[in-house]
Design goal:
transport
Length: 110
């Protein structure tokens, strides 16, 4: 009877070990499934973010290249206005400059 009880105890321990192994395997599989799901969700978020940033980049690129013609025209207008202003100033003082040059050229110093 003692041997039978010892055999039963061993059988009980083996069954408990198998059940524990089954629980550990189930938990490990669940963990792997959660990690796989988290990776897939992260990949999806990364792809969405990348697409959003690419769209934003393309939009800004289109804005800046589309405006380059307008910028060139604006700069040409500003340049022409500045040139006109300088010509006006030069014509206003050109007589004085000519008089000063003539005075210095014709003045003889000893």
């Amino acid at each position: 009877m003692e041997a039978n009880r010892g055999q039963n105890g061993i059988q009980l321990l083996l069954a408990a070990e198998q059940e524990a192994q089954h629980i550990v395997n189930t938990a490990r599989n669940a963990k792997m499934a959660r990690l796989k799901q988290a990776k897939e969700e992260a990949d999806k978020e990364i792809a969405e973010f990348r697409a959003h940033m690419e769209a934003e980049y393309q939009r800004k690129l289109a804005e800046s290249s589309g405006d380059s013609g307008a910028n060139v025209k604006r700069l040409e207008r500003e340049t022409e206005a500045k040139i006109g202003h300088l010509k006006t100033q030069a014509s206003g003082i050109s007589h004085d400059v000519v008089q000063m040059l003539l005075k210095h050229v014709t003045t003889v110093k000893n």
